[in-house]
């Protein structure tokens, strides 16, 4: 049995944590990264590794050591069941709002097929440097460091990566030199595919926020996203309704082109906190395209984002994640 074959016997979530695995004279020595795990989870990780490897042919003794190479840093994933519902816009604005309140927050743009954080946070065209094999996040003028595949590839170039490559790329963004950042908001790609599952298994976010529009279809998709997190035992910290109610830029009148209240009702029925709603407002799109997140300003739309950020911070503080 080779070291590679031994590693292949481990379930994917354990294999993803293997830092090194050596076999010599019937003795296996495995070093695992236990970052983010509490003592009980660490113990069960060690036990499961010992059991699996101990059953392999030619193995007489298994030694398992765990290390926590990454500092304690909470990851909150921002997900949605489908594209275009405003997940990236919400991520950028939550980060800016939290930074304004004094939190040390960074953004990982894991939407590797359509990265938009460099534009939203206005550091497009900049390149992260690498120090000791780790990327150093790119600063933005909003006090929020960012790492995005958009910083690594030419703007507008199509990214047609297969799952494993995408997973590795995501790993480099999260496992970067985040310094004193305490909270990482991760803008996930829409849907429930490979990248999302890798993210859950390997990086164990402390919690997830789901974004949906009020439409029925989006809500069905949002439910799927919630189920994915729940299946991975990642607490869903709350649901945000975006593009709720259209605010006419001319007369200020509010209307509900996609219905209203659906996301809140859905959150209630699943016993998930409803974190708030953001209106559909052309000014939000314009400000976002210009790299000036509304949450950085004083307007009403900025306040809507800030309110959601405060509720999220409260959820994190009360130990929901
Ligand atoms: N509340 C809003 N009012 C008006 N426009 C909005 C609002 N929220 C987002 N948008 C616009 O909708 C478009 C899609 O938003 P965004 O890129 O944030 O969505 P997404 O869910 O991250 O999409 P993708 O799946 O492509 O990553 C953008 O042009 C954005 O500016």
TrEMBL record:
This is Iron-sulfur cluster carrier protein. Belongs to the Mrp/NBP35 ATP-binding proteins family. Keywords: ATP-binding, Hydrolase, Iron, Iron-sulfur, Metal-binding, Nucleotide-binding. It holds the Pfam family ParA. HAMAP family: Mrp_NBP35 (MF_02040). Binds and transfers iron-sulfur (Fe-S) clusters to target apoproteins. Can hydrolyze ATP. ATP binds at residues 81-88. InterPro entries: Mrp/NBP35_ATP-bd, NUBPL-like, P-loop_NTPase, YlxH/NBP35. Homodimer. PANTHER family: IRON-SULFUR PROTEIN NUBPL (PTHR42961). It comes from Pelagerythrobacter marinus. Coiled coil: none annotated.
């Amino acid at each position: 049995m080779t070291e590679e074959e031994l590693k292949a016997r481990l379930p994917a979530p354990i294999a993803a944590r293997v830092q090194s695995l050596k076999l010599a004279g019937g003795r296996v020595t495995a070093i695992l990264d236990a970052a983010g795990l509490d003592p009980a989870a660490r113990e069960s990780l060690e036990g499961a590794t010992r059991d699996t490897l101990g059953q392999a042919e030619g193995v007489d003794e298994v030694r398992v050591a765990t290390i926590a190479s990454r500092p304690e840093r909470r990851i909150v994933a921002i997900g949605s069941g489908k594209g275009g519902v405003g997940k990236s816009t919400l991520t950028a604005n939550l980060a800016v709002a939290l930074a304004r309140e004094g939190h040390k927050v960074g953004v990982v743009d894991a939407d590797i097929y359509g990265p938009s954080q460099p534009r939203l946070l206005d550091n497009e065209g900049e390149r992260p440097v690498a120090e000791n094999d780790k990327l150093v996040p790119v600063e933005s003028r909003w006090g929020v460091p960012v790492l995005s595949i958009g910083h690594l590839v030419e703007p507008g170039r199509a990214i047609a990566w297969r799952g494993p490559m995408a997973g590795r790329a995501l790993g480099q963004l999260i496992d970067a030199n985040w310094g004193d950042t305490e909270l990482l908001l991760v803008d996930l790609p829409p849907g429930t595919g490979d990248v999302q599952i890798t993210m859950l298994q390997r990086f164990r976010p402390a919690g997830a926020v789901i974004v949906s529009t009020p439409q029925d279809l989006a809500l069905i998709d949002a439910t799927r996203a919630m189920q994915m997190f729940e299946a991975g035992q990642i607490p869903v910290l709350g649901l945000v309704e975006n593009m709720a109610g259209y605010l006419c830029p001319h007369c200020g009148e509010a209307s509900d082109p996609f219905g209203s209240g659906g996301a809140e009702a859905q959150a209630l029925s699943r016993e998930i906190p409803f974190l708030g709603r953001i209106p559909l407002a052309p000014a939000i799109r314009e400000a976002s395209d210009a790299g000036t997140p509304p949450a950085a300003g004083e307007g009403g739309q900025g306040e809507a984002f800030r309110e959601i950020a405060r509720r999220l911070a409260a959820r994190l503080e009360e130990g929901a994640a």
